[in-house]
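Handout, section 3.2

Students often ask what a structure token actually looks like in practice. Rather than define it abstractly, here is a full record for Thioredoxin domain-containing protein. The first block is the sequence as you would receive it.
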Amino acid sequence: MCRPTSTHHHRKSNKKQKRHHTSNKENYQSNNTDLVTMAEDAIGHQETPHSSLLRNLGPDTLLHSPTENRTAPVSQILTPGKVTLFYFSAYWCGPCKKVTPILKEWYLSMKGQREKYEDFELVYVSLDAFEKEYQFYTKDMPWWCLPFNSPIASQLSQQYNTGGGIPSLVVVDADGETILHKDAVPSIVGGHGSEFPWRPQPIMKLLPETYEQNNEILPTSQLDDKYLMIFAGGHWCEPCRGFATKLSKAYEALKQRRNDFEILYLSSDLDEDAFLDFSSSMPFGAIPYEYRDAKMNIASKYSIAQLPTVVMLGPVSPLDGYERPIINIDVRSIFEESDSSSRYLQEFPYPPQRCGDFNRTTEDINNIKAVVVFDEYCDDCEQEDVEEAMQCAAEAYHQQPQQSQGGDLKFFWVHKPTSFSQTLRGALKLPDRNSSAQSVTACTSPIMVMLDFPDNGGYYVANVNEMDEDDLTTTSILEFVKNPGPRLSIM
């Protein structure tokens, strides 16, 4: 039940006996005002995302122009109305050395055509290992550069999730917040630099007019009123081949129940023969291999960085510029589970959950902030109470429009030990029953953590020694969100 307070500790006398529950809804509603207040406090005390580039960088942070041999503060360079490009690179990186001359040529060409394009500035974010290499690498750069070993570099890398590799060119709109392109390097190297600043286009403009299915050429427009899943994969990718078999089986099972959806294969195959071989084994549609630009633009639009990925989109909305709303950025895990048939049949169209079983979430934990309760070794009654407390905390938290200021927050529980949850326990250095060094109490009591992996692997742990199942209430969860304690890191 949703318990804003914990005044009666009667469960310990008979844990296995199911207790008499008063109406959970009545209990929650009667304390709704208190919980909302708690949620507001929790939200208000969280660190808020930076609302502008100047706040991110610090208006007095100095940038250097090597070719002009002058230095100026950020506030004088990144003035209102300018698009900003952050170039993450380093001298020691071989691919970077190849990209930098191409980027330099593009930059000078664009600056020479100011009347045709939006005004912009490019800032080099150094990931160089040595200052001498930094000096050598930047001496001919025509754009602005952050100083060597600047603490701002790691901050920007964290904010724009560039940990996947360099070179990377992040494009931020003139409002200082909207990311127009997570990595424009492929666009520039691929000859699409004239499309700057690469403002997102509706999916309807990116998809070709036709798609292939069962040796037929069909009009893409006939899918407008259907849900659409984009399956990004490639024949060369071994996990993709295994996943394609599962997805094909799920597709055929779903088609027996409903006809309001379609799947299109987005090919990352190395050549057309591989594409034809792979796509012919699938019962759903495919974007023709020849449309390489469409493939690149769609992958960029939905930030598809790994294979396989399945993006779930809603039907075309005439009220939203004929765009398809994003329902879930990756539903791959729903189809991967060995016992997932009930999920993909019953949970369609797979919206992301704000609260639920951590072992079944479709979220990438590296990109979200979440409260997680590990209660694998608690009994059924205790686990039921954890679910109810978490559901009420999630509801109270997300009732507040101000929650967007503190960032989205998920609420999950872990009822069963899996290889995934056990690996996470180990990474977080949490007590585990399999370790003889841990006390029985620490292992059988619920453990609450808050994951903030986007913040350089950050996380927080509630006081394990003081928590038992009766301490885990809606109020205590929200209080933990408000005051999570010392920051830890898996790094």
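Discussion prompt for tutorial groups: Confidence is low (pLDDT under 50) at residues 1-30, 43-51, 436-441. How would you have guessed this from the sequence alone?
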